[in-house]
């Protein structure tokens, strides 16, 4: 497959089994400001990214939402609670959150010590990095 200029495009198989270029979506947080009376967008942060085919895969969506939550936490007091809710709602229109049942199923596959942690801190703990013994790092 080639683009308009004739360059070869990389293709990969999508989650649904069809071939073709996979689209990558990025959630970027910007702020509208005025510079010399002109409206401009000031880049605040890249929240996370996911491919179009990855939206259909629960593990990819879980990692995406963990990254969004972590990045919004890093922004701290720069984003108010109301703004954070609006941002999360806007992102959820493109990348739906996992239903609670899917989060619980993912939690069942964790070692017992991690399950307790996941219940106390929420879904963010589900994809915690692990060492070779399976314990959360």
Q: What is the domain total for the residues? A: 2
Structural class: alpha+beta
Helix content: 25-40%
Global morphology:
flat
Tell me the number of strands.
2
Describe this structure in words.
- With 137 residues, the protein is of the alpha+beta class.
- It has two domains: 1-98, no CATH class; 99-137, no CATH class.
- It has four helices and two strands, in the order ββαααα.
- The chain has helices at residues 58-75, 81-94, 100-108, 112-121; strands at residues 24-35, 38-51.
- It has a two-stranded antiparallel sheet with strand order 1-2.
- A hairpin with a 2-residue loop joins strand 1 and strand 2 (38-51).
- The longest helix is centred in the middle third of the chain and has 18 residues, at 58-75.
- It is flat, with a radius of gyration of 19 Å.
- 9% of the residues are buried.
List keywords for this structure.
single chain, 137 residues, alpha+beta, 2 domains, two-stranded antiparallel sheet, 4 helices, 2 strands, 37% helix
What is the topology?
Elements: E1 24-35, E2 38-51, H1 58-75, H2 81-94, H3 100-108, H4 112-121
Antiparallel strand pairs: 1-2
Could you write a compact summary of the structure shown?
The chain is of the alpha+beta class and 137 residues long. The protein has two domains: 1-98, no CATH class; 99-137, no CATH class.
């Amino acid at each position: 497959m080639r683009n308009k200029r004739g360059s070869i495009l990389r293709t990969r198989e999508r989650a649904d089994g069809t071939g073709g270029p996979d689209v990558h979506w990025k959630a970027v947080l910007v702020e509208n400001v005025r510079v010399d009376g002109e409206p401009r967008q000031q880049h605040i942060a890249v929240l996370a990214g996911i491919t179009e085919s990855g939206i259909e895969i629960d593990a990819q969506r879980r990692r995406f939402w963990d990254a969004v939550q972590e990045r919004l936490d890093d922004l701290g007091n720069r984003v108010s609670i109301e703004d954070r809710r609006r941002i999360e709602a806007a992102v959820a229109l493109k990348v739906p959150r996992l239903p609670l049942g899917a989060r619980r199923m993912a939690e069942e596959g964790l070692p017992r010590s991690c399950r307790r942690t996941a219940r106390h801190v929420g879904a963010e703990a589900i994809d915690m990095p692990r060492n070779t013994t399976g314990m959360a790092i």
